[in-house]
Design brief:
By secondary structure, the protein is α+β, with helices and mostly antiparallel strands. The protein has a single domain, classed as hypothetical protein PF0899 fold (2-Layer Sandwich). The strands form two sheets. It has a three-stranded mixed sheet. Strands 4-3-5 form a three-stranded antiparallel sheet, with no helix packed on it. A hairpin with a 4-residue loop joins strand 3 and strand 4. Helix 1 packs across helix 2. The radius of gyration is 18 Å and the shape is elongated. The two termini are 31 Å apart.
Amino acid sequence: MHELGIAESALQVALTRATAAGATRVLGMVIRVGALSGVDPEALRFAFTAILPGTPAEGATLQIDSVAAVAYCPDCQQDFVPDTNHFFECPTCGRLSASVKQGRELDLVRLEIV
């Protein structure tokens, strides 16, 4: 479960930023997770629950913002949402596209600290 490593890294970043800001507690975090990131949001939430006890982030809330996949068709010059199997075929012209505009995100986007 690589989500545990991701949770540990995000927690370390959060604690480092909190310390740099003179805070002693992390009350909440918001993480953006793209549909193509390979991260299972529920596994990430479970991992956070497991690692927070005994840290300055114990009891912190975790909000996960999901980001849908969006691809771009250079022939039609328009964005499209890939099908549920993440098959990147333009629904208008049928061309396969390797141009992903969003959906790979994995970002710590906000902290609530005191």
